[in-house]
Amino acid sequence: MFGSQRLKWAVYAGTALFVLWSVVSLLSGVTLSRVSIGVQNGYLLLESMVPPETSSESLQRVYTYLFETVAMAFVATFTGVLLSVPIAVGAAENLSPKPIYLLNRGIISITRSIDELIIAIIAVKAVGVGPLAGIIAISYLSIGFFSKLFAEDIEDIDMGATEAIEASGASRFQTFVYAVIPQVAPRFIGLTVYRWDINIRSSTIIGIVGAGGIGTLLMRSFSRYEYDFAGTILLSIIVVVLAGELFSAYVRRRVT
Amino acid sequence: MLETTNLRKVYPTGDEALKGITTTVNGNEIVAMIGPSGAGKSTFIRCINRLTEPTDGAIHLDGTELTGLDDRAMKTARRNIGMVFQEYNLVERLTVMENVLSGRLGYVSNWAAFRRKFPQEDIDRAYNVLETVGLAGMENKRADELSGGQRQRVGIARAVVQEPKILLADEPTSSLDPESSHAVMELLTEIAATKDIPIIINIHEVPLAVEYADRILGLHDGELVFDGPTANLDDNAKDVIYRGVEPPTSNVDRDVEVPSETGDELIQDRPTVAGD
After folding, report:
1. Mutate to test the interface with B, among A168, A174, A177, A188 (most CBs of B within 10 A)
2. In the predicted model, what is the mean pLDDT of residues B9-25?
3. What is the nearest CA distance from A250 to chain B, expressed in angstroms?
4. Domains of chain A
């Protein structure tokens, strides 16, 4: 009792000290004049984005890159999910023997540990600038997410049904087809659409490191100080991401 | 004919759930297995088709020894053993027909199962069985649309469509209301007669067992303490089964009133009383 009470206060004090130290060290160079200059610059940047550029040639470029973005997300979701399914089955404790379970859980943890931009940079270095790098990066990132959540859904199934079908003399494969797949199919569809929606968002940003998609165009417009064009791009990203989110929410509501 | 010889099961926790069960089930008799919770009734039934792996002993079904079979041979053997579960264990999202047909999976190839394609004769069988269990016309309903009694009928249909040599029922009435329980017991009795197969039913409602069974197996603490015609189940026999009061020949001093899970704690907390 006494020990845990003391530990609690130690944790509080440690946290408070750490926050204080972070604030002091990060803000030590900040002065009032710097803040006001920063705010002014920010305001100017926003102002130069309005009105967004709407010449038909620019809009055409935005369409082209937006299409590339959505297509990248689509292909990457497909390959990512395809690669995830065996890993998810392997990482489901109720279906897989311990060593396979641990191996697949390990794969999931590793794929989840590196952020998407880092993966995108590596992919660009490996296969060159362009959407292929983006597809590889996003597929890779889908694996960790999809396998982990899908494995948990598989672990949640009613094993009674599985057992009953096994008891009738069905093979493991047949049991999987008859008892596992029907139980996880709705969640599978829901998760796929959800991941597709996340992947659209991811594919808008990884263009910044050269991995294709609308981010490429955004980066270019910033480096050329075409802020009104950047404004157009940002608006288009918002529209596409929102549309994807609405679609995904709709589908998920329908299937589960 | 099912024959178990000295069937033992020790769980990894060290619990000895079955302490050597030797019995024979024959013809088309209805055998009710009764006993307090934790006596090993479920373990016994599940050991027969090896959903639970027995530790020791032998099981013969029509001359085939089951405990020594490899995976493939055991699959084939399981086709001859139908099983009905307490919680029905249907695939809720599949239709009644698909659930019944899943009882035929042992007879079709993986590829056919993948395409959900069954031979016409299996489909005819399924329709017949659905009629037997009183669910004719329900084949396209989803299992989760049915009532408990109807689900259990689907569960029975799935077991019967296997055309098994024996039917095992693990507490088939425990999740049902009294009316459905009677209906299920009647159905099982009818199936034993028409299909000419024996049925072992785990059941904890003694009146139901007495009403429908030809023979009673009484299990207490992993031991078979009663095995005889239903008529011989008198109050004394029930005491032996449920309270472990045994004939004077063996030691009477077992702590049988205390449920096994909490028994140890209770004994520790209780002061030792002389003459207890």
Report:
1. A168
2. 93
3. 21
4. 55-255 (1.10.3720.10)
